[in-house]
Amino acid sequence: MNISIIGSGNVATHLGKAIHRAGFNILDVYSRDLINAKALASELQARAVDAISALGAADLYIIAVKDEAIVSIAKQLNAGDGIVVHTSGTIGLDALNTCSNNPGVFYPLQTFSKNKQIDMYAVPICLEASNASTMKILIRVGKAISKNVQELNSQQRMHLHIAAVIACNFSNHLYVLAAELLEKEGMLFELLKPLILETANKIQSISPVDAQTGPASREDKVIIEKHLEALKSNPQIAELYRLLSASIAERRMLD
Amino acid sequence: MNISIIGSGNVATHLGKAIHRAGFNILDVYSRDLINAKALASELQARAVDAISALGAADLYIIAVKDEAIVSIAKQLNAGDGIVVHTSGTIGLDALNTCSNNPGVFYPLQTFSKNKQIDMYAVPICLEASNASTMKILIRVGKAISKNVQELNSQQRMHLHIAAVIACNFSNHLYVLAAELLEKEGMLFELLKPLILETANKIQSISPVDAQTGPASREDKVIIEKHLEALKSNPQIAELYRLLSASIAERRMLD
Prior knowledge:
homodimer; alpha/beta; 9 helices
């Protein structure tokens, strides 16, 4: 099976390397920027191209580019019966209808950074396909690089993306707000790092409901009022504090 | 130096063991429940007592009990010139004025669970004392068990606690909300665990501001609207989604 990678960013790089390592043959690597295409292609023993029309005939094309570029690439690509997948959590399967009779989604649920190693084998791969034979091939590729391969429909994938935004993007924003508060009071964010790591570690082995601690979960109104008073000069953070505390308290009452 | 531990819960256990391991002599372990006192005391080669009045004369008493019990214990204890510290992030130094001429705070910033090992050496110890000679002794004990010992005043400690509530208790609540969403759509929370861990891992080496990703940070209004539409049946989560996205977007504009 010949696989071509469209894109040369973080997702393309991490996926391409994992698939290459698993023993699949990478045919082409496309990037608008030939230098980037060449850099990744050389690691994958593949050919570098900087035009969609220059891509050879592959069995599977993986479009791993920014969401907003997927449609424009799909318009240029003509894969016929070749499978075309994108790697986005938010774009529907139908975005690929124009370029392939066998569209699919190959969505790795992880945040990839350029110079940071990721244990790809632990990254869940979420699959969707328009037909069973396509799904079979995607499962084969998925299982070769990850221990956690899931079939999800578009509706589920969207909700998974929302859940990821809430649990990860928003958590990171809470780290940002905490860092701001500490800095204002002459303390370093450094102080919180072990606690943040342990908070994420804890829910690897116990459920987040059981892991919940803090003033709101023990209904400590005295402390909550003290904190809101201290956040007076920070009305936006105070509002978030109030809402999140109320949301915790509400779930506690449902127990 | 003789040290006595008042309490037998998670904080008392983790701290007591670390201090014992560092070579200090533990004199007494107090718990209302003699069985609990004995269990911890036997690990610390100490004497178990179940009455504050039965405590021997120690150089340092560490009150590691729930916040609401600190004042009542402080009323019963008469340490004279012996140092008395509590381990709370939220209680002031003055709560100990009645029981010692040398009150202090010895606050380990971590979430402790009974059966979970913690690398105490990585846990920041936040210290406060009413005088320099007390502080000197607390620093000595702190540095023997942790590589990160900080002197903080009560105002700073309160803000540190607020920051910890925001970064950790609230993050955990976001995990709870994400788990609810996934369950509703027939998916397992399992799926998010690697992403949550990587989110906490990332900010160990890069700043949370630089680590911020997601629809709000790239001002992807189309996705945000789609998500809010999908959250319609969940107005409380939708409201949090809106507020947190606005807070992210605002900080982005300040860049």
